[in-house]
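As the next step, I selected for study one protein, both as residues and as discrete backbone shape codes, as given directly below:
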Amino acid sequence: MAGLVIRPLANGEFGALRDVLVDALADDPGWTVVLPDSEHRRTALRSLVGVALADSGEQARVALTERRVVGGAVWQLPGRYPMSMWRQVLAVPRMLPMLVRLGPRARAVQRFGEAIDEVFPATPVRYLQILGVAPTDQGRAVGSRLLADGLVAADAEGDDVYLETGKAANVGYYQRHGFTLVAPGGPLYDGGPTMWRMCRSSAR
């Protein structure tokens, strides 16, 4: 995409990037299993993406063209994930809208998050928590540019990179960028969505 700029998130861009990432994840196969209702899914994603963006801080990256947000990536440095208890407490205000609107359905979201945390690598890794591109801008190499930006930073520090995806088509995409499967794709818990966990060793 001509004129594409990738940089840290700036003041005033939080809401725009959150909404783009929600749109990007709204039809994700994993999330459709966790919350089949599209309205409930968007409610949950709005809170969860907001939490991830705020917690990532300077590690969040935004992709822009002509000052329009077209995608972004949320990274966590080694040792920053899973979230500490204190950071979970700080996230509560952003989680409240989801908890209120979903009611008992929020338990499905909690179970999904717990399952992701339970299998998270014990060794320190740089975590690609979210990578998303606006649906209207997909297929224009925005995601590849965002991923490459993060991998350059990881290699500069000698960090291995970890991610999980609920979309089978993404497996080959990440393999082309040096990722390998940690384990065969499958549900993380009974009745849960199929997930593929992948890792990339540092090139340094």
In short: The CA atoms of residues 14 and 128 lie 18 Å apart. The mean pLDDT is 96. Residues 38-56 form the longest helix (19 residues). The beta strands are 5-8, 61-65, 68-76, 126-133, 161-165, 180-181, 186-187, 194-200.
